[in-house]
Amino acid sequence: MTNIMEKKYIPLANYFSSATNATITLTFTEIEQIMGQQLPNAAYLNQSWWKKTKPPAKHFHAWLDNGYYVKKVEINRHVIFEHVDSADKDGADEDGDKDILLIRPAEHGDARSFITLQKAVEADSDFMLYGRDERIQSTQKVRKQIIEWKKSGHSTIFIAILNGEHVGYLMIIGNSAKRASHRASIVLGVQAEARGKGIGASLLDKAEEWALEKGLIRLELTVVTENTAARNLYDKAGFSEEGVRRKSLIIDDKPYDEIYMAKFLD
């Protein structure tokens, strides 16, 4: 990856670096969801912005340095990228293109999309803390929280982006108190249609990587006893049961127990 590329295009570069498809079509909205920021006005107004490959422009490094060029632009609709060796690219087969998964820290520009994602996950799940349409939060509040967490260094949010769409998240909630600064709790959610693709496991791997960089030695969570899929995921990720919080949630007038789970990091 070139070191002269603008910082805001780095997530887009990471997206293309993990791609194996001969052709990638992304809407303008999907590109902004990958970046976590808005495209400049020139991208919406001029096809030439996408075709630039010379200084002082730098944005093109995101795809060009990873072997892709812009094949076609439909202004304010979508962009078609093609690999320079598309004839030899083996990412596409008769069953269709392969999924492209990118996991990155949330930026303040993700606030509105994150709210939509969180509501969608909670509407799909029977076991989240909040039920369908129950959570109330403003874009301004979430944006402020993301900014404050990035400054604090002990909490963060990771966004899972599948084929340009926000489909999952993992929140790491740390502690400012010195005696508890070695641990953090996590909350994970993946949209129903994106489950079974290893996204949850990838989010947990990213969380562990971040935690180790921050010097944390313990990650903890709670999971509803009946949530078998989540329990299996956490078991495979190395989390161990530590106890039961009895009747901690009332869902549809029925009490549910939660299991305390934790993982100690090496």
From TrEMBL:
Annotated N-acetyltransferase domain residues: 115-266
UniProt xrefs under Pfam families: Acetyltransf_1 (PF00583), DUF7662 (PF24698)
Keyword Transferase: yes
GO MF terms, alphabetically ordered: acyltransferase activity, transferring groups other than amino-acyl groups
Protein name (Swiss-Prot/TrEMBL): GNAT family N-acetyltransferase
Keyword terms of this UniProt record: Transferase
InterPro entries in the cross-refs: Acyl_CoA_acyltransferase (IPR016181), DUF7662 (IPR056079), GNAT_dom (IPR000182)
CDD domains with a match to the protein in the record: NAT_SF
